[in-house]
Amino acid sequence: MKIIMLGAPGAGKGTQAKQIADKYTIPHISTGDIFRANIKNGTELGRKAKQYMDQGLLVPDELTCDLVMDRIGQADCANGFVLDGFPRTIPQAEALTNALEKIGQTMDYAIDVDVPDANIVERMSGRRACLNCGATYHIVSIPTKVEGICDRCGSEVVLREDDAPETVQKRLAVYHEQTQPLIDYYQKQGILKSVDGTQPMEKVFADIVAILEA
Ligand code: ADP
Ligand code: AMP
Fold first, then answer.
1. What pLDDT does residue 143 have?
2. 27 near 73, Cβ under 8 Å?
3. Which residues are catalytic?
4. 3 state DSSP class of 3
5. Using 50, 70 and 90 to split pLDDT, how confident is the model at 63?
6. What is the 3-state secondary structure (H, E, C) of 41-109?
7. What average pLDDT score do residues 147-159 get?
């Protein structure tokens, strides 16, 4: 099962992708998490990516595509994977289509988690992220059991730098301009499915499972 999660920043792609990965025992591949891990570890890729991320801009395709193609070629991806935050541009989507074509494969589903812009800023300002294990919470709708501490690994959870309201506005503009066209792209490929991402997290997940098991 090869799945792409589409949707605006803060729509809930990561929240759902983690559950899909757990339920179907496939890797969750988040380009945002990969970049954040590189920033944390002080790598050259992290240094380059941070310059764009801090401004709410996309990391250039040439820094992004190869790392995803390498990742999906690894052995644990043989039975499928869930892509979260990739592709984000038409050239990235084309690179993915072409890479899979070479090995006689295609993606199975592109699931658009639909949340209006009006809800996004509230979601992002309440998001708390564990930079150690990648878990994500929300101070109101999905709180940690102990305030400020990750349920999964016990590290501190923080407000991501790029979740500041001004940066979120920029990220939303970038989403509409560069990423939203992918909805059409995957519609044309015949694999687009849409779920109402404003529902409670469990209901969104149930809708996704119904699509995957239809
Ligand atoms: P994305 O990966 O699309 O950027 P996240 O999965 O990190 O988004 O979710 C953004 C924020 O919204 C997080 O704080 C998350 O806990 C919260 N969230 C996710 N899904 C829901 C939901 N269905 N209802 C309310 N809050 C949600
Ligand atoms: P995310 O964790 O998915 O919200 O991503 C955080 C940031 O990482 C984005 O705002 C971009 O700057 C960068 N990023 C993540 N995935 C991609 C991608 N596929 N293409 C370009 N930039 C990306």
1. 96
2. no
3. 13, 88, 127, 160, 171
4. strand
5. very high
6. CCCHHHHHHHHHHCCCCCCCHHHHHHHHHHHHCCHHHCCCEEEECCCCCHHHHHHHHHHHHHCCCCCCE
7. 96
Given CA atoms 27, 209, 83, 17 in this order, what sign does their dihedral have? negative
**Alpha-carbon distance values, 54 to 22, 28, 29, 82, 203 (Å):** 30, 24, 21, 25, 32
Q: Nearest bound ligand to CA 112?
A: 1
| 88 close to ligand 1 (CB < 6 Angstrom) | no
**Cα(17)–Cα(113) distance, rounded to whole angstroms?**
11
Q: Is 85 close to ligand 2, i.e. is its CB under 6 Å away? A: yes
At residue 83, the pLDDT reads 98
Q: Check residue 201 and give its pLDDT.
A: 96
The pLDDT value given to residue 153 = 97
- Domains of the chain as residue ranges with CATH: 2-115+177-212 (3.40.50.300)
The pLDDT, as a whole number, for residue 190 is: 98
CA of 76 to the centre of ligand 1 (A): 26
| Span of 73-77, 92-96, 163-167 with lowest mean pLDDT | 163-167
Task: Give 91's strand partners.
Answer: none
pTM as predicted: 0.97
pLDDT the model gives residue 17:
98
Measured distance CA(202)–CA(213) in Å, rounded: 16
